[in-house]
Amino acid sequence: MGRAVTVATCALNQWALDFEGNLERIFRSIAVAKSRGARYRLGPELEICGYGCSDHYYESDTLLHSFQVLAKLLESPATQDIICDVGMPVLHRNVRYNCRVIFLNKKILLIRPKISLANAGNYRELRWFTPWNKARHVEEYFLPRIIQEVTGQETVPFGDAVLATKDTCLGAEICEELWAPNSPHIEMGLDGVEIFTNSSGSHHVLRKAHTRVDLVNSATAKNGGIYILANQKGCDGDRLYYDGCAMISVNGETVAQGSQFSLDDVEVLVATLDLEDVRSYRAEISSRNLAASKVNPYPRVKVNFALSCSDDVAVPTCMPIQWRHHSPEEEISLGPACWLWDYLRRSKQAGFLLPLSGGIDSSATACIVYSMCRQVCLAVKNGNADVLADARKIVNDETYVPEDPREFCKRIFTTCYMASENSSQDTCNRAKLLAEQIGSYHINLNIDVAVKAIVGIFSMVTGRMPRFSVYGGSSRENLALQNVQARIRMVLAYLFAQLTLWTRGMPGGLLVLGSANVDESLRGYLTKYDCSSADINPIGGISKTDLKNFIQYCIENFQLTALRSIMSAPPTAELEPLVEGQVAQTDEADMGMTYTELSIYGKLRKIAKAGPYSMFCKLINMWKEICTPREVASKVKHFFRMYSINRHKMTTLTPSYHAENYSPDDNRFDLRPFLYNTAWSWQFRCIDKQVNALD
């Protein structure tokens, strides 16, 4: 009797609408799975078209091309003698569903539509798909002719069913269904399903990986069973980085773990597992067995195929392992670096340009690019032919081999210190030393000529000359003069990004990197259309606190000693005149709040869903040891005033790597007005009333 089943799951770096590339990666994963003896292969959610197609799901072309890819898979000898489980959109009776298509030997066994759709945060699946609300119900799906010609089938089962092979029973979940309170695996497990599969499109958030692992392990801890999870990986065309972590769990314990961050486009996990372990585990859980005796049965699709061999007593099976989690600093080092690599190679640009100020934020961005260069060199050293081919295309050299991260950095990364009369020599030296240590091509320039020209035009037209406040100017004049410097830096950044390689006799252009952190964006502490306006921003979803910890990580792990002085210096924009040659302006003084406070405000506003009054109520307890209620009220009011005044800046925020659940990104994640009544009169009156009651 067969008892040892060999199954495969994978993490694929799919790209939205890249049907040719997606097909090639699916084929590669199937080939690896078969070569390692797997009889079942699971892929990520919507892997045929790529998860991030967004409104392209409305287009009939997306459905057509998905079926064309499916036909290629069905007719290929590469997919014979292995159950293949792939994801694609399917239109059934004029309703669009997010589906798994499960097939074997040129026959479709089942099309299983998604039951619980992800519709929070970055996800909008209800915009494009409809959930399948007919529990344990199966209908006939009439196949398009392109598929009929391959399979010889006119109709196939479509709905909420499970597969019954000759040796076991498999049931599918799709991404969000694992996170739902009434996950299908609960009832399926009670009905005798022994292998649960989950195809995901789950993105990276700092400190989130353990949640996903815990959910998978807990899915089988109470009910027994084998749980197989596949996930997308990489940047498939927007702000998200899908972080792999394919895994296989048995009876609540992990037996196979995939990488969370890597430059491998195709990663396959294969495990051999003993079905008798599941059966004996379940046998002694009496509460589970009592519930199973009353469960409504699932429709079963019979499959004349086995995942095991008849004589497999001596076949070794996988043992439990301890999951290794990355620290948040490692996550920042690896996740945004992999995202940048995908963006660089897929945009077909020749590298990056970063305005490097000598402060923590731009230095952290530079360190992420350096980390990317390290990952590229390591991948090439480990024999990754895809990464080598991409690196050669980027540097336009068919014989090039990236071996030294600093040398590769010199080719693809340009840093630029843009000094003004308000810049200190300290920041100039810090930027130069960091550039030397990471190997970037570094430029020093001065923007004073351009600033004076712009201000001179204004003065010539109006007859007035604005002054900084230290010279007697008003706050309006002071802010306008700061903004002119910041915006000129943006113009120069794009000019140098387009032409720097031209001056060096090299082809191509550079992507401009921004370096505003998530806290500054939340507060609006940035000039609209300054050098925070860029092509992409790898740190735009990361807090100042986490960036400081990341800088310390780089000092210790990358031996970047230049970062020590950057860490110890107070954050400053250096847009106001120096006092006796020293910086007098600091970020926290300008903002009227600390970065630590900003992180707390951000989490309460977004994650805790707190408006001004609720935030005040929470903070009078959180800060009772350090602030009076009246001081808390003043801080909360100041934050909401500044947040609402500056919210319009979020509409033009540079696309940023999504890493925090309190991101203020206005594009998809944090949908708010950008024209507020900044007086917040009703809300603030409620706070004042409570303060008076507490005094």
SSE layout:
Elements: E1 4-12, H1 19-35, E2 40-42, H2 60-75, E3 83-92, E4 95-104, E5 107-113, H3 125-128, E6 138-142, H4 145-151, E7 155-159, E8 162-164, E9 169-174, H5 176-179, H6 184-190, E10 195-200, H7 209-221, E11 226-234, E12 242-243, E13 247-250, E14 253-257, E15 266-274, H8 275-283, H9 286-292, E16 300-302, H10 328-347, E17 352-355, H11 360-381, H12 385-395, H13 405-412, E18 413-419, H14 425-438, E19 441-446, H15 448-462, H16 475-503, E20 511-512, H17 518-523, H18 544-557, H19 563-568, H20 587-591, H21 595-606, H22 612-622, H23 629-646, H24 681-694
Helix pairs in contact: 1-2, 2-4, 10-11, 10-18, 11-13, 11-14, 11-18, 15-16, 22-23, 22-24, 23-24
